[in-house]
Amino acid sequence: QSALTQPASVSGSPGQSITISCSGTSSDVGGYNYVSWYQQHPGKAPKLMIYDVSNRPSGVSNRFSGSKSGNTASLTISGLQAEDEADYYCGSYTSSSTIWVFGGGTKLTVL
Amino acid sequence: EVQLVESGGGLVQPGGSLRLSCAASGFTFSSYWMYWVRQAPGRGLVWVSRINSDGSSTTYADSVKGRFTISRDNTKNTLYLQMNSLRAEDTAVYYCARYGTRCFDSWGQGTLVTVSS
Asked: Does the distance separating the beta carbons of B107 and A45 come in below 8 Å?
């Protein structure tokens, strides 16, 4: 069982917006602004999409945005495109001995 | 361009050993903490081990403590993972990842380790 909780799947139509949640505790998501999000296409390596809750690395589309409220972080993808279909993982620093935790992943389907 | 290229995976019997390597280029390797993260078939990401920039400090997930050893050679820009006493549950794709600004900002393509008789 993953330390951070994500929905197993979400879906949306091209052009729509979707939001993926990532629930943790005050020891990880809620306690630090160190949440990051990763996109992973089948058979490929993960790719950083968001870091420090809401910052986008250079080269990542501004259709991707992140936010946090309490112990829950969120990734929003606006203007859905077919190429966005992938698995998405959240991750966070944790003050526990685990040091770093990932969510279980969310499969995004673009209808 | 940052590049991380893993190698050394393969099929190994339970109880066996493997040594993974991760060749880094395109950045100052000696300035970054590095991690090994694994992904079992159809499962999520799990960090396995980490090492600080000069190799003086290492940390392991409980599931591999005492069996795996992480190391690095900053003169060769290479990260290693020595895996001993391998179990079926260690079967996974192993990624090396650069720890940047409080996140994993670069990943290798991964190397598959299969533990089976």
From this structure: yes
A103 Cβ neighbours under 8 A, 6+ residues apart: A2, A3, A4, A5, A6, A22, A89, A90, A91, B44
Q: HSE (CB half, 13 Å, CA atoms) of A109? A: 6
CB pairs under 8 A between A and B: 54
Taking residue A2's Cβ as centre, other Cβ atoms within 10 Å add up to: 17
> Residue B19 has which token pair?
């040594």
Mean pLDDT of all residues belonging to chain A = 95
Mutate to test the interface with A, among B38, B59, B96, B102 (most CBs of A within 10 A): B102
What does the pLDDT look like over B20-36, one tens digit per residue? 999 999 999 999 999 99
- Rounded CA separation A8/A58 (Å): 28
